[in-house]
Design a protein that fits this description.
- InterPro entries: DUF427 (IPR007361), DUF427_sf (IPR038694).
- It comes from Vallicoccus soli.
- This is DUF427 domain-containing protein.
- The protein has about 270 residues and is mostly beta strands.
- It folds into two domains: about 110 residues, Domain of unknown function (DUF427) (Metal Binding Protein, Guanine Nucleotide Exchange Factor, Chain A, Beta Complex), CATH 2.170.150.40; about 110 residues, Domain of unknown function (DUF427) (Metal Binding Protein, Guanine Nucleotide Exchange Factor, Chain A, Beta Complex), CATH 2.170.150.40.
- The protein contains no helices and 22 strands.
- Strand 2 and strand 3 form a beta hairpin.
């Protein structure tokens, strides 16, 4: 899904190849500047405000923001007395966040002796989930920090998509929208008119994607088979995913998706 996940160039499962002169460590770390201003809020108060944000990319992990320690409001973070070993960053010093009477344990950490990546000196990593709200410039960030190397693209398609559950057709469309997301197989989103609504039952499940928005789910029942949360849609998608607004996509054990008569990649 990024430089270091999925099929990204620094991931162990990278899709491409480097020339023979390129040498990577077993666990590369890549730190870069973030041009956007980032603010974080705890109990309604801004406790992080930085125009000097760095982003760390690390193998098998989502990228995270690191902030100069002086861009975190004084008195909010305090050493917890706990540490954690981290290979390859080094020994992490865990920090609690305190605001009013509220304490968030292990809300952040720093690396007092960052031998593997000296540029981490003087920086602190504040966990995304430790604060209540984050803004990038004046736009809310949900889920986790947005990866600058992650793309979502949508294209109208004339492919013939058929979805079966328990051997029974639950959707049949020749006008899907095909969504391409970095490091992931393509997904096909179908108009609701091409889906047999009697096989769908609304689920309470929701998930959040920083690039597409909030997904709502439906359980599929057909041919004696029940697939929990086997269909989903984005009713209020973010701008880059506007073309799939209200359309349905399908995935899960027991769901068969075929495209032009062949199994769809990444659906089995």
């Amino acid at each position: 899904m990024s430089l270091t996940l999925g099929t990204g160039p620094l991931a162990p499962t990278r899709a491409g190849v480097f020339d023979r002169g390129t040498v990577l460590s077993g666990h590369p770390l890549y730190l870069e500047d973030v041009p956007q201003r980032v603010r974080g809020y705890l109990d309604g108060e801004c406790v992080v405000d930085s125009r000097r944000v760095r982003m760390l990319h690390e193998v098998a992990a989502l990228p995270v923001w690191w902030f100069p320690a002086e861009d975190v409001r004084a008195g909010v973070l305090a050493p917890s007395g706990r540490t954690r070993d981290d290979d390859p960053k080094g020994a992490l010093r865990l920090l609690d966040a305190r605001r009013g009477g509220r304490v968030v344990e292990d809300a952040a950490y720093d690396v007092p002796e960052p031998a593997a990546l000296p540029a981490l000196a003087g920086l602190v990593q504040v966990r995304f989930g430790a604060l209540d709200r984050w803004l990038e410039e004046d736009d809310e960030v949900v889920g986790h920090p947005r990866d600058p190397y992650h793309r979502v693209d949508t294209r109208r398609s004339g492919e013939h998509v058929v979805v079966r559950v328990g051997g029974e057709v639950v959707a049949d469309s020749t006008r899907p929208v095909k969504l391409f997301e970095t490091g992931l197989p393509p997904r096909w989103y179908l108009p609701r008119e091409d889906v047999r609504a009697e096989h769908l039952r609304l689920s309470p499940t929701t998930t959040v994607c920083p690039y597409k928005g909030v997904a709502t789910y439906a359980t599929l029942t057909a041919g004696g088979t029940v697939v929990e949360d086997g269909a989903w849609s984005y009713e209020e998608p973010f701008a880059e995913s506007e073309q799939v607004r209200g359309l349905l996509s399908f995935l899960g054990g027991g769901v068969e998706v075929s495209v032009d008569g062949e199994p769809a990649p990444g659906t089995s």
